[in-house]
Specification:
The protein is α/β, with parallel strands linked by helices. Helix content is about 25%, strand content about 35%. Helix 3 crosses helix 4. One of its GO terms (molecular function) is methyltransferase activity.
């Protein structure tokens, strides 16, 4: 089942799948990074916004927030969550913004949905064009050389429609610019279980390669993947936060 079909089918359960994600901490971290490195402005755009939780938290923090995603059912739910925000169905590698943005975010490793290095570079260039002077592009990423193919993250959540189990893990074959995010979703209700398996193609990149792509456009700060403590990346961990200030 393709990623779009899966998410169209289960868009109503997407927030359950992400129930263990601390959207508030991520949004607050982006605000702190904007204060530390950015221009202090309050115009915010969330790439691959899904159902809009980051947009909601940023609005509550005083931002004029908007979001874009390629999945219309997700955007429909985002509009319900954030009726005061503007949402648009756009490709994050080739989007337009109505006005210059001060802060652009792209969490949940969604930068990897670019698919290939050429589209990743296009995403970076497009974000750069959309930012105001000294605007901040903030996202998290995973280093292809530090992926453990045997590592999976799992959690369960109860819903009126049944008991759901979600598991996901990165897989990198060891060479090339393609990795995948493997997903398994199970729903159990009335003694019956439905299972969805999916594998999302993602761009594979090392942090060195990523910084090389970013540096012509941005002053790049690489930080540990810790939303509470803003400390420089230690050079060994496989996940990191990137705070990129428009040159």
């Amino acid at each position: 089942m393709s990623g779009n079909i899966l998410y169209n089918d289960l868009s109503g359960y997407y927030d359950l799948m992400c129930a263990d994600i601390d959207y508030l901490a991520q949004s607050h971290c982006a605000h702190r990074l904007q204060q530390l490195f950015g221009n202090g402005g309050r115009r915010h755009l969330d790439l691959a916004c899904g159902t809009g939780p980051h947009v909601r938290h940023c609005i509550d923090a005083g931002y004029a927030s908007s979001g874009l995603d390629i999945n219309q059912p997700m955007l429909d739910r985002a509009a319900v969550r954030c009726p005061e925000a503007h949402f648009s169905r756009q490709d994050m590698c080739a989007f337009t913004a109505d006005e210059p943005q001060d802060l652009i975010t792209c969490f949940l490793y969604s930068i990897h949905y670019s698919g290939g290095l050429d589209r990743l570079q296009a995403c970076i260039a497009t974000a750069h064009r959309a930012l105001a002077s000294n605007g901040l592009f903030c996202f998290n990423a995973v280093d292809k050389g530090r992926i453990d193919n045997a590592s999976f993250v799992s959690h369960t959540a109860r819903h009126a429609d049944g008991l759901f189990s979600f598991s996901s893990g990165w897989n990198y074959p060891g060479q090339g610019e393609q990795q995948s995010l493997k997903l398994c979703i199970e729903r159990s209700v009335a003694g019956e279980t439905q299972v969805w398996h999916d594998e999302h193609p993602m761009v594979a990149v090392s942090f060195d390669e990523l910084q090389t792509l970013l540096q012509p456009y941005f002053e790049v700060h690489v930080l540990e993947h810790d939303y509470e403590k803003l400390i420089p990346w230690n050079g060994t961990s496989g996940n990191a936060l990137f705070a990129c200030v428009k040159r």
